[in-house]
Amino acid sequence: SQKIEQNSEALNIQEGKTATLTCNYTNYSPAYLQWYRQDPGRGPVFLLLIRENEKEKRKERLKVTFDTTLKQSLFHITASQPADSATYLCALPEGGADGLTFGKGTHLIIQP
Amino acid sequence: NAGVTQTPKFQVLKTGQSMTLQCAQDMNHEYMSWYRQDPGMGLRLIHYSVGAGITDQGEVPNGYNVSRSTTEDFPLRLLSAAPSQTSVYFCASSPIPRTLHFGNGTRLTVT
User: Fold this and answer.
1) Contact criterion met (CB < 8 Å) for B99 and A44
2) Using CB atoms and an 8 Å cut-off, which of residues 38-77 of chain A contact chain B?
3) What are the pLDDT tens digits along chain A (112 aa)?
4) Which residues in chain A touch residue B35, judged by CB atoms under 8 angstroms apart?
5) How far apart are the first and last CA of chain B?
6) What residues contact A5, with CB distance under 8 A and at least 6 apart?
7) Closest chain A residue to B38 measured between Cα atoms?
8) Is the dihedral of CA B45, A74, A76, A14 positive or negative?
């Protein structure tokens, strides 16, 4: 099955700067990759999906890149705000079961 | 605009008790799934369903049963709770491609 690696240490970024989170996977290259946001005590919320033939996807202040050669996705938040503080999860389709495999997430803290 | 609704929000069980975690969605999604989330383990898929009458196992199905009699509902049953099942349980539904819509979870403690 797919193994996903996200930085388990919290990422502290100053407000207004760009936050960059990394997702690395180890096995087959998936048809797409997704990013979710999770706030404490809540379920994850879908943010972006990027397909294997797309190098970059944008949504407002969010940008995702997908490099199938490096087996890596980068998630960027530009002009970061304290409200962007949350845990961000990377997810890939699971080859066996019809579901998604999630990384453990990176906790992002935007400091005012 | 309910989305995915999970009940109860919190539950405490004694070892050996049974219970059903409820999940309902109003988005007419064919796909529904159950995940558990544990510290340091991330989200792990328990069971999923691609439509009414169809269910299948995910990564960690042991100790859990599911059924899917309607498109809207996908209950998760614990037949004999164990302390190892202490976790936060999330139900999710999805259109195609699989962009999951999660409920807000059930926090289960088994003593």
Assistant:
1) no
2) 41-46, 49
3) 678 999 888 999 999 999 999 999 998 888 899 999 999 999 999 999 999 999 899 999 999 999 999 999 999 999 999 999 999 999 998 766 578 999 999 999 999 9
4) 102
5) 36
6) A23, A24, A25, A26, A103
7) A104
8) positive
